[in-house]
Every structure is written in structure tokens, then in C-alpha cells.
Amino acid sequence: MSAAPMAAIDPTRFWLLALGLGAITYAMRISFMALMRRHAPPPGLIRALRFAPFTILPAILAPMVVFPTSGGGEVDPLRIVAALAALAAGALTRSMLATIGVGAAVFWGLGALL
Amino acid sequence: MRASRISPALFRLGAFDSLPLMFAIIPFGIIWGAVAAAAGLNLLQTVMMSVTVLAGASQLASVEILKSDAPILVAIIAGAAVNLRFLLYSASMAPSWRGAPFGLQATAAYMLFDQPYGLCAVRYPRQPQETPVERLSYFLGTGAAFTLVWHVASALGWAVGARIPMDWGVDFIVPLSFLAIFAPALRDKPSWFALIVASGAALLLRGLPYGLGPLVAAGVGVAAGIWSENRLSGKESRS
Description:
Distance between the termini of chain A: 29 Å
Helix content of chain A: over 70%
Number of strands of chain A: 0
Structural class of chain B: mainly alpha
Largest sheet of chain B: none
Structural class of chain A: mainly alpha
Number of helices of chain B: 12
Number of domains of chain A: 2
Number of domains of chain B: 2
Order of helices and strands of chain A: HHHHH
Shape of chain A: flat
Largest interface: A-B, 78 and 99 residues
Distance between the termini of chain B: 49 Å
Largest sheet of chain A: none
Radius of gyration of chain B: 19 Å
Oligomer: heterodimer
Number of helices of chain A: 5
Strand content of chain B: under 5%
């Protein structure tokens, strides 16, 4: 996103990337559907997977919140406070909109005041 | 026959439940369009990369690398590393969809990205009476809604491009949308424990290459959740 004029990406290279990355990505997405077509899921897997959304999504977002790339990886306390406020609001109200509203109010609202 | 047809009502419900999260998809799609335009991609290329890959973060990462004249394979591997989490999403959805016509599963798998996955992963355990086809109907509704809005937003971003200001903390939107998916579903102590352990592990492991950090951290978090659940049920049976 620099202001300098950018030479266009070579079309062959672009299409190789679009098709190659697309094929690998789809293979990962369908992998376990294909596997479980013939093989039953191991007992215990379903119990373990109950925790999946509470672990993979926080594991992706925690580093984004604590070490944001836009600040060059420097810790920004406002982001941490806003994320914790959103987490608390979501768990208490069980509402998606309240989670977003509280997180946004703290991050952009409080951020503008500070 | 009836059991293999998708349910329009659940499809609509999935699309409806997706609406609050559009606040995250629209700016993210605009960013992809703007970055693609700045990298010299035309509108057809910008949209087609979303059609073939349909995973915004990996599209951004791999195009940035391709722009720098790196070998094509490096760009593909970097994008695939960002998408490694889809393996876990696939393992997470597969038991719930098992037994439904494979064509439906293969169609849904195409749209297996963060938001539809998250909405379904927290919904399915609470609706145990639903059949695999009913679960897929809900998933397809949410996936179609996000995919449609993503394409419109990325075309818009391509057209408006660098005129969009980016210094207002736009990178907080993705974490906030993830929080909106799982925070309202947090009910029990083992889930909280799994969440805290996974977050801490992810912060410690953020130096791991190829996007492995979040995957390993999620595995540690799941183990912590199971351990905590066993401990609680052990206490109950003793008392």
C-alpha cells in the first residue's frame, strides 16, 4: 500500500498462486470429511472437540491483541482491556452484539478519550 | 429422501445469525481489495483469488510475498501455513456432518473459514437433536452469507483502494469478531480453563514457524479442558 507505482504481478505467477493455494486450502478443509466417510470418529474425539472453539479462536486472537502488528508488535494496554471487557460482556450477556458493542466502545470510544 | 434435502428454514437462520459479524467481514474484504489493487491485480484477479482460496488472511500474506519477487512456492507455503487451522476446523465439523450426502459436505467444506466454523462449533453441542443435513443447512446459510458479502466488499475495496484510511485500529476488528463468536457460548468452568490455557500457550508459542503456534496452543487448551472436566466429575462422583 505504498504510494510508489507498483509493477503488476506477472499473470502466470499470480494464477499459479491462486490455483495452487486454492487447491491446498481446499484439501485441508475437506480432509477430515473424506477421512470420516469410511472411518468412524474415535470415541473421545467429540468430547474433545467441544473445547475446540474455546481454544483455537483464542489461540489465534491472543497474540493479535497483545502484540498487534500495527504497533510494530509493541504491547498496547488498551487492546488488552478492550478484549477482556468484550469477553466479560459476552459471557455475562450471552449476546454477540453486546460483545461487539462493549469491545468497540472500550477500544474506539475510550481510545478516542485517552 | 426428506433427510437428504437441506432445510430452508435452517439455511435462513444461519444467514440471519451471521449478520452481527458482518461488521468484521466488510472492512476485511475492503482491505483485501485495496491491497490487491495496490499490488497491481486487476478486478478479475482480485475476485478470482477469493473464489479459489476464500481465506482472507492467507490471500493477503501470499500476495505480499509474491509482490516481492519471491519464488512462487514460497508464497504458496506461506499462505498454506496461515490456513493450517482449517485442518482443525475440518476435524471439528466432520463428526457433525458425517452421514450426510458427501456432495453437501464437499460444498460446505469449500466455505469452511473462521466465522461459519465458529458459529457452528458453538451451536451444534446445544442442538444435539439436529440431523447431519440440518446442521449442514445452517452451515451453508452462514457460509453463503459471509461469502457473498466478502466478494462485494473486496470488489468495493479494489475500486476505492488506497483512499480508505487505515490508521484507526482496523486490526482490532478480527479479534473482536472472534470474541463475539465464542464469548457468548462460555458456560462452564472447563471451557474457561481451556480458554485461559490456550491463550497463555499461544502467547508463549508465538515464535513457532508455519502458523503452528495457535494449533499447538489449541491442542494444549483442549487437553486442559478435558483434564478439568474429569476433575470436576471425579469430585461429584466421590461426594
